[in-house]
Amino acid sequence: MTTRKSLDFSLAALMIVAPGLASASSLYHPTGGEVGYTTHPDHVQSTKSRGEVMQSVEAARKDGTLAVLSRGGALPIKATGPAKTRDQVQQEYLGMSAAEKQRLQEMYGAGG
């Protein structure tokens, strides 16, 4: 029984300490108070060289994303493929089985 208690105590201690160990190398560290975190840029280990970072910045400057991000804007999502036409969507819906239509009905509601 003593072994079980010591094992339980060790596991409990590990559970309490583990989050602190995991955040030691992160940019943000949790704190008490209104803000809830502090920032520590010196704790982050980068895997990129200075040259790679400068190339990324230059590429962002050329394609315009640096200007958008510097003003706090959101980058538009790039399309992964061609958009479907209305007719294609309608034909896809008409080609669905009754079970697939029922599942969509349950997921999105009756509509309208």
Could you describe the 3D structure shown?
The model has no long low-confidence stretch (mean pLDDT 82). The longest helix has 21 residues, at 2-22. This protein has a domain at 1-45. It has five helices and two strands. The protein has 112 residues and is mainly α. The protein has a two-stranded antiparallel sheet. The chain has helices at 2-22, 50-63, 65-70, 86-94, 98-108; strands at 28-30, 37-39. A hairpin with a 6-residue loop joins strand 1 (28-30) and strand 2 (37-39).
Secondary structure elements and pairings:
Blueprint: H1 2-22, E1 28-30, E2 37-39, H2 50-63, H3 65-70, H4 86-94, H5 98-108
Antiparallel strand pairs: 1-2
Mean pLDDT: 82
Alpha-carbon distance between the termini?
64 Å
Number of helices: 5
Coarse structural class: mainly alpha
Describe the sheet with the most strands: 2 strands, antiparallel
Strand content: 5-15%
Q: Radius of gyration, rounded?
A: 26 Å
Strand order of the largest sheet: 1-2
Q: Kindly state the percentage of residues in helix.
A: 40-55%
Overall 3D form: flat
Strand segment count: 2
Uncertain stretches? none
SSE topology string: HEEHHHH
What's this, in brief?
This protein has 112 residues and is mainly α. The protein has helices at 2-22, 50-63, 65-70, 86-94, 98-108, and strands at 28-30, 37-39. The protein has a domain at 1-45.
Pick out its properties.
two-stranded antiparallel sheet, mainly alpha, flat, 5 helices, 112 residues, 2 strands
